[in-house]
Design goal:
The protein is α/β, with parallel strands linked by helices. The protein is built from 15 helices and 16 strands. Strand 6, helix 1 and strand 7 form a beta-alpha-beta unit.
Length: about 375
């Protein structure tokens, strides 16, 4: 429904994770009986979870671990792992520095050239671990890196930018031709990021095997503040899911959508799946793992319940191992651990046997769902992601 926001100007109301809730069903199911797997191209994966292509989240080591646990982890081919023989030294410099110093270090480290031999080496390291290899590049380098990645043995290739469309126009350079790229690529192609129904349909027509959904919701993304761009993730996911379903009916090809960013808890992930996502991509949850490239520390914002001024940047500490983040046991009550358990329990509560059934569950608009009756929890700082 459109709302008039000024004379001759209308806007559509959109919703994020905090605006909705999942309605329990009249039928429930044992969480151990549900199937949370999903398929991407010819592959089936046990967990509908991907780790973001960020240097502080995915290294060859974490990619191997997450792969063995049943998920996927995307290695950034333009990050430190393809620039430095010993990226641990670079990471140590960043994590041991103050915020101001870390910013200056980060600004300088990406001046080092990307080395093709390191791309081959890192992909080989992941392959030796027995898990799937997923790598990413921005559109301007996609053709070059896709060829290198495929030759090195990658299983999936991701083309990712803040906003990706099938019809990018430029006068000073030749934009990547996604249709041509897909035609010459033997491995599945994941494209993102996108948030609208029409853009999704056009990217599917280009041959994309999956789409990343989300502009600006990630903890490390500033697009919404700097550019004013974005669509809240529930609405973006629902619109994209509608495009996926329409495309499947018209073409007979199912293109999974992966909600990317804005999720810090199991509840957020469940809402993304209930909104229509086939899987989700998360970063900050994995960045706090003991095995994460940044040694389990990253910069975050002080919560309203802390003793620091609102918006103060602080260092967020270790949450647990990757296995604990995914499967528990949870030693906090904030929903950031045992993410798989949360998905299973939610599906059991709505009687969903699989993710496709979870996508059909009832949602309600409930902006007070997290605060209703929680005055004492807030006073005790319970239930807030740390």
């Amino acid at each position: 429904m459109e709302i008039e926001i000024g004379r001759g100007k209308k806007a559509r109301r959109a919703y994020g994770f905090d605006d909705i809730a999942i309605v329990p069903s009249r039928r429930t199911r044992d969480p151990d009986d549900v199937d949370i797997s999903w398929t991407l191209g010819p592959y089936r994966f046990e967990l509908p979870l991907l780790a973001s292509a960020m240097d502080g989240v995915v290294s060859p080591e974490t990619a191997r671990i997450i792969g063995k646990l049943g998920g996927l982890a995307v290695l950034n081919l333009e990050g430190i792992f393809s620039r430095y023989e010993n990226p641990d030294e670079v990471l140590d410099r960043i994590t041991s520095a103050s915020l101001d110093e870390a910013t200056k270090i980060i600004q300088g480290i990406y001046g080092e050239p990307i080395k093709e031999e390191l791309i081959h080496k890192k992909i080989s390291e992941i392959k030796k671990g027995g898990g799937p290899v997923v790598v990413s590049a921005i559109p301007s380098r996609a053709e070059r890196f896709a060829k290198i990645a495929e030759e090195a043995g990658a299983d999936f290739f991701v083309v990712q930018s803040t906003v990706t469309t099938a019809r990018h126009i430029a006068t000073e350079y030749t934009p990547v031709d996604l249709r041509k790229l897909k035609k010459h690529l033997a491995i599945p192609l994941i494209v993102g990021n996108v948030v609208t129904y029409e853009a999704c349909l056009e990217l599917m027509d280009c041959g994309a095997d999956a789409l990343l959904i989300g502009v600006g919701p990630g903890a490390a993304c500033t697009s919404r503040e700097v550019l004013g761009l974005g669509v809240p993730q529930v609405t973006a996911t629902a619109d994209s899911a509608a495009a996926r379903d329409f495309y499947y009916k018209r073409k007979g090809r199912y293109v999974p959508i992966i909600t990317d960013g804005g999720m810090t808890t199991g509840g957020d992930i469940c809402k993304a799946l209930a909104s229509g996502a086939d899987a989700v991509m998360i970063g900050s949850a994995f960045a706090r793992a003991t095995e994460a490239p940044g040694r389990g520390y990253h910069w975050g914002m002080a919560t309203p319940h802390s003793n620091l001024p609102r918006g103060t940047r602080i260092r967020v500490g270790v949450a647990g191992s990757l296995e604990q983040i995914l499967f528990g046991p949870a030693f906090t009550e904030d929903g950031t651990l045992n993410l798989v358990g949360a998905i299973r329990t939610c599906m059991g509560s709505v009687g969903a046997m699989n993710i496709k059934e979870l996508q059909q569950t009832e949602l309600i608009i409930a902006p007070s769902i997290k605060t209703e009756g929680k005055v004492f929890q807030r006073a005790q700082k319970l239930g807030t992601p740390r």
